[in-house]
Structure formats: structure tokens, C-alpha cells
Amino acid sequence: MRQGEPRPQGDGMPGIRRRRVLAVAAAGLVAGCTEQASTGSPRPAADPLVATPPAHAVVAAYRLPVEGREEVGDLLRGLTDRAAAAGGAGREVLLGLGAGLFDRAGLAERRPRQLTAMPSFPGDVLDPGRTHGDLLVHVGAGTAPDAARLLATVAGPLAPNWRVEGFRDGAGTSPAGRPTALNPFHFTEGHGNPEAAVVPAEIRVGAGEPAWAAGGTYQVVRVIRLATRMWDHDPVDEQERIIGRRRDGTWLDGSPLAQDPPFDRDPGGAVTPLDAHVRLARGAGERPPMLRRGYSYRAGEEDGLLFMAYQKDLDRGFAGVQRRLAGERLARYVLPVGGGYFFTPPPGTAWHTALFGP
């Protein structure tokens, strides 16, 4: 809690008991994170989102079975205690708070400013059974069984409304040190992310948000079905013109992947079409200010992408990109069917105390 910020008051129930400090220094809400610095911002070196994503992940969304500030706080405390006990090397645990959680806790006035239910963008066909949630638990581990067990341990008795199990094929590192992986369309992802040194400054919120939220980040989750069979029938050079990069990440004019996009030298789209995915996503400005993580998934005969993006400003980040992507050629191969908006709290435990009391 920041100096001068009033301590949250009770919910009218007498004698809210003292809560012990959350034992999550090892795992926090993210395995391997450290406590917040005295400024309220996480130490950049400990930022969990800088680390290479684990090979397997499970994302699960829950509707909370309780209401009231104390009851919601106790539920979250139990979850984070279990995360601490389950954490370890190569494991990751992230918690996302949905807009509905603040309503259930009676803390609507302390909700992060941009946290709402995720809207439907052009081209979306959102399945209510795979969309939104009061709480998101995202776990990662080296194998699929380990990730599934980790989720079961952390979530405890909670039953998810929806869940997606993802994996990263062809995981590697770009020349600039960014984690990369192959998506189901056979393209390398991760080149457009910010460098590790600037990730905290680019994605974590500060002034303008409730004091408890400083150092947290807005998380977007998108469950996207991919028409892989139709895609694979197209020639590779046509696929690359649709994306706006070559499969290995280099630009279509041969420029190296670490170089700024060469779009200003191609105003008419002769080399990189004007409706190419990367070109539209970039727009006329700089790289979109967000950190993206992608996992492939398979559910029966359904191939897809579990896409996640972290940012300090949804409108400048994900939502702004979605508006620019309207009309892209890639749209005929992708179908967003689920996901949601969530807020990942700051690393450490101070946010819980600030919201729910000691």
C-alpha cells in the first residue's frame, strides 16, 4: 500500500480477522518473482514476463463461487498459498483478475480503469462457454502432464468454466534475445516483442490506476481457431505476403528481422501488401506497445492459437491493433472464438493486502 493511501475498510462484518502475510515469495503469483520495490513497481530483473515461456501451458477461467470482500480475499489467499507450495524451477503461475471479481468482492471502485469484459471485434464469433471469467489461472511447465497437475494443485477445488492446453513448437531465441516459437501456420513468432530490458516499462501500469495496481499489467487472452488445412493449400510465398514476413521472420524485401520494417520504402505495397497482417498491425507508428505470447493448441480436430498479450494500455495496445487489422487478408483463415480481458497483479503480495486487508 502506498503511503497516504487509506486502508480499505471492512464490509460491515465485525472483526475481520487478521490475515497472515501470503507465503508466496518463491512463486508469488508468478513462479520465480520477487517482492515489489518500495516505489510500488517490480524490480525489472525479476519481472516474470521477461523469462522464456515454458514449453507447455494451461489457461483456465473460473466464475467465483463466493461473494463479499472477505470471502473473495480468502479464496485468493488459498490459491496463492497453493501456488507458493507448487512453484519451482521451470514452472510458472500467473493470476488474472476479471472485471466480475471486483463486483463479487464489492470493490468495483478499485477495479483497474480499463478492465471490462472483452468486446467482440470484427470477425469474432465468441462462444460464451469459452469467454470471460472472474479469475484466470495460467500455469506453465516443461511437459503437458506437469502443467495439468500444476493447474490442479493451484486451482484446488475450483472447477473451470473453460480451459485451453497449449504448447510451443520450435521454441528458440531470436538474435535479439527474444523467445520465439512456431505457430500452426509454420511462422516464427516473437520477433516483434520488446527487448527484455524494456518489458517492465512498456507493459506495467503506473500513474492513473488505483494505487494497489501499480506494477500490474492488462492481460488479453484470445482463443483463435485456425483453418490450417486451407492455409496449407496456399503456396508459401502467398502465405508470406499475407503475413508480411517470411517464415523465419525476415522482411519480404530481404531486410534482416532485427531491422525496422521497410514499409516506408514500399508505400504502394508492391513488396509487402498494404493488407498484410504485420503491416496493418504496425500501422503508421512504432511497434505495438505490448508483449505477446503464443501457444498452439489442438482440441480434437480443431487447431488453434492461444494468444496472450500484456500491456499497460489496452486501447493503445491490443484494441488499437484489432481496429487496424479490420479487412486483413488473414481474416479468412482465423476465427477468434473465446478469451477475455484480465488484470495480472504486480509481483509480490502487497496488492492483496491493499485490496482485502492484512
UniProtKB/TrEMBL annotation:
> Which part of the chain is the Dyp-type peroxidase C-terminal domain?
186-346
Every copy of the Dyp-type peroxidase N-terminal domain together lies at 93-167
The signal sequence is: none
Q: Which cofactor does it need?
A: heme b
What do the Gene Ontology cellular component annotations say?
A: cytosol
Question: What InterPro entries does this protein map onto?
Answer: Dimeric_a/b-barrel (IPR011008), Dyp_perox_C (IPR048328), Dyp_perox_N (IPR048327), Dyp_peroxidase (IPR006314), TAT_signal (IPR006311)
**Alphabetized UniProt keyword annotations:** Heme, Iron, Metal-binding, Oxidoreductase, Peroxidase, Signal
GO terms (molecular function) for this protein are: heme binding; metal ion binding; peroxidase activity
Top-level division of the source organism's lineage: Bacteria
UniProt xrefs under PANTHER family: DEFERROCHELATASE, DEFERROCHELATASE/PEROXIDASE
The family classification in the record reads:
Belongs to the DyP-type peroxidase family.
This protein is called Deferrochelatase/peroxidase EfeB
Instruction: Specify the species.
Output: Actinoplanes regularis
